[in-house]
Amino acid sequence: xxxxxxxxxxxxxxxxAQGSGSGLERVIVAQGxxxxxxxxxxxxxxxxxxxxxxxxxxxxxxxxxxDAHQNIIAISSAERYRTIDEVLENASDQSTVVVLDSVxxxxxxxxxxxxxxxxxxxxxxxxxxxxxxxxxxxxxAASGALESxxxxxxxxxxxxxxxxxxxxxxIYGFDAASTANYDAVEYADRCALVMGGESxxxxxxxxxxxxxxxxxxxxxxVSSLNVSVAAGIALFEVGRQRRSQxxxxxxxxx
Length: 254
Hints:
By secondary structure, the protein is of the alpha/beta class. 35% of the residues lie in helices and 20% in strands. α5 (106-119) links the parallel β5 (95-101) and β6. The longest helix has 17 residues, at 227-243.
């Protein structure tokens, strides 16, 4: 990740971030710092939906490597995020999107992006909060896949799913509690695969927005798969079905 140090650099980056999909992860402000310029930047961050954290000056010094940080630092991601509108505008008639609900390990995020690329998926969608971001660790795990797979960061995951539905995507949530197996449904030409986080899987409100809930059956003693493994299995099942069109029992939603 990259840090921007000082009031002028941070203010400029925040202005550019508004509506641009810029990869600003957060802005860090020194606790107790008070002046009109800092307040203006904080206000702009809130308008742009950029998280602001207040931390001790010692924390800023560790990140900046200097005491000359003017009480403010911005942290940017390794790559630029795309917007959901950009992805939908360029989606083909046969597109797959992966939606991640609270996946917090950057290595898992990177591995999922890599699998998405290998399976020909269009994009990976992540929420702004409670999610891993495009850190250097995630970019490294993606192994170059960020060149071809768009990563979208959204404020509201439910609204993003609604937008996908409005663009003729069918939503398939992967939930261990489901009774339907992932390979017993036919995936629509435009489909979104929703994977839950490492600790608790799909949140209830996200699951409610899915058209289908499916599971990956397990034969051993473990209760669940790593989310990046599950995402890879799901993605390549979609690809397998598309390569053998007409050979899978039709169970597409009516």
